[in-house]
Design goal:
- With 200 residues, the chain is an alpha+beta fold.
- The chain has one domain: Mog1/PsbP, alpha/beta/alpha sandwich (Protein Transport Mog1p, Chain A, 3-Layer(aba) Sandwich), CATH 3.40.1000.
- Helices cover 34% and strands 33% of the residues.
- The strands form 2 sheets. A 7-stranded antiparallel β-sheet has the order 3-4-5-9-8-7-6, with helices on both faces. The protein has a 3-stranded antiparallel β-sheet with strand order 1-2-10, with helices on both faces.
- The longest helix has 22 residues.
- It is globular and about 45 Å long.
- The N terminus and C terminus are likely disordered.
């Protein structure tokens, strides 16, 4: 009996450890239904350990598709990863990149701009690192999942230039971008998403 009890306790401890390890590598998915000429879409990526995802409260309030943040939501842009998805209208990903660069430099002509290297295996992504004269850095990456999808999307994050966690935050941001995957929207995804919200 004691051996059986010991076996059960060991099995339970092993299961708990496995569950904890699995929880470190969570995924997050956000999607949009078909709307007129725009096909339904979904974007899947990793949720960094210790970060909170939100698609339907804070993200909706600021007009984006997803935000991921640490700690409590403050409403400030610092240390918040933002996903924004839109119907593709400009001719190319390069055009999207240059348009954003132009608008940024219109606001801050003396800002420094450099390329942000990302390696997404499933689609083309291009990034920029803006160093503003306000002593805040903006990391911005545009991704193109393909002409047939009808969409493009961006990930962005603002970090104080002297933030002691800059390297760690930038690495987490890069992983989120590089793990981003496009999938076509289905009603099954919507059903799963609705159930997950209800369970949460």
């Amino acid at each position: 009996m004691k051996r059986l009890l010991m076996f059960v306790l060991i099995a339970m401890a092993s299961f708990a450890a496995h569950a904890a390890d699995a929880g470190k590598d969570q995924g997050v998915m956000v999607f949009g239904k078909t709307d007129g000429d725009v096909l339904g879409w979904s974007v899947l990526t990793d949720l960094p350990e210790g970060w909170t995802k939100d698609c339907c409260l804070y993200a909706k309030a600021i007009g984006v598709n997803l935000v991921m943040y640490q700690g409590d939501w403050t409403g400030k842009p610092e240390r918040v990863m933002v996903l924004n998805v839109w119907p593709s209208k400009l001719s190319s990903l390069e055009a999207e990149l240059q348009d954003d660069r132009h608008h940024y430099l219109d606001r801050d002509a003396k800002a420094k701009v450099s390329e942000l290297h990302v390696d997404n295996k499933s689609m083309t992504c291009r990034g920029m690192h803006f160093e503003g004269t306000d002593h805040e850095d903006d990391l911005v990456v545009f991704c193109d999942p393909g002409l047939a999808t009808g969409i493009r999307f961006s990930w962005s994050m603002t970090v104080a230039h002297d933030d002691p966690q800059m390297a760690t935050l930038a690495a987490s941001f890069q992983r989120v971008v590089e793990q981003s995957k496009y999938m076509k929207y289905t009603d099954e995804m919507h059903a799963k998403g609705s159930k997950a919200k209800a369970d949460h």
